């Protein structure tokens, strides 16, 4: 492999890893507070692409406004799902909440098939993101640069919110102990809704970037990326924002480099994530930087 080809694959791997990181954070935030795997997260990611698409194609909004509305609406949909499917089961056994999460995932997939039909649609890619740059034989689309920058900006905002704001302090308190947080006067329900809003909004950012990178969307779009981002969160250390970012980049770079160095295995690209998950669970079940976490009762 030439240096040019390696750099080309490296840029693609960083771009894909950034997408995985954005989406994986939603999994890890919800798990960190509720010890719940939100299996509907991939469908939230899918819905964001359709909201953005119809904002541009049906309502003829400027793409900037359509994308912003998609992020806000998707965040609110995440809160609605939490209130409808998870909040009533908060005192129930964990298995009941898990079944509810899987049920919501299937419900959203089939609702998408009914509303949007199963026919794939083309996601709009503004000209700004489609420009090609040639660096001495290395051809890179502007979107490849934009995705890591957008991911870094949103991750920076998230870290600030979690570490420097009152709501962030409340989120960290609730993640440690529900009852103690309540005794301290923290509105636990508000904190959980806030968490779902942020996680879903980040999934929407990832969904919009994904739609522009792979401009073909359908109601089952979130299934495989959702599973991969869950794996990324586990690999990095589920419950840790930093771990989700590390796991996302690890998975994205690993997928691209597998195809780059072993093109004969390109058909097994998706299997790489599941093999990686098995290895991590066998070698270090808590993830790369994860810590053992006690179950909330």
Overall description:
- With 297 residues, the protein is mostly helical.
- The chain has one domain: ABC transporter involved in vitamin B12 uptake, BtuC.
- It has 12 helices and 2 strands; from the N terminus they run H-H-H-H-H-E-E-H-H-H-H-H-H-H.
- It has helices at residues 3-34, 41-57, 63-86, 94-116, 127-130, 142-164, 166-176, 178-183, 188-213, 223-236, 241-261, 269-283; strands spanning 132-135, 138-141.
- It has a two-stranded antiparallel ribbon with strand order 1-2.
- A hairpin with a 2-residue loop joins strand 1 (132-135) and strand 2 (138-141).
- The longest helix is centred in the first third of the chain and has 32 residues, at 3-34.
- The termini are far apart.
- 43% of the residues are buried.
Offer a few descriptive terms.
2 strands, 297 residues, mainly alpha, two-stranded antiparallel sheet, ABC transporter involved in vitamin B12 uptake, BtuC
Topology:
Elements: H1 3-34, H2 41-57, H3 63-86, H4 94-116, H5 127-130, E1 132-135, E2 138-141, H6 142-164, H7 166-176, H8 178-183, H9 188-213, H10 223-236, H11 241-261, H12 269-283
Helix pairs in contact: 1-6, 1-9, 1-10, 1-11, 2-3, 2-4, 2-9, 2-10, 3-9, 6-7, 6-9, 7-9, 10-11, 10-12, 11-12
Outline of the structure:
This protein has 297 residues and is mainly α. It contains twelve helices and two strands; from the N terminus they run H-H-H-H-H-E-E-H-H-H-H-H-H-H.
Second-tier CATH architecture: Orthogonal Bundle
Tally of distinct domains: 1
Strand tally is: 2
**H/E topology pattern:** HHHHHEEHHHHHHH
Mean pLDDT: 89
Percentage of residues in strands: under 5%
Q: Describe the largest sheet.
A: 2 strands, antiparallel
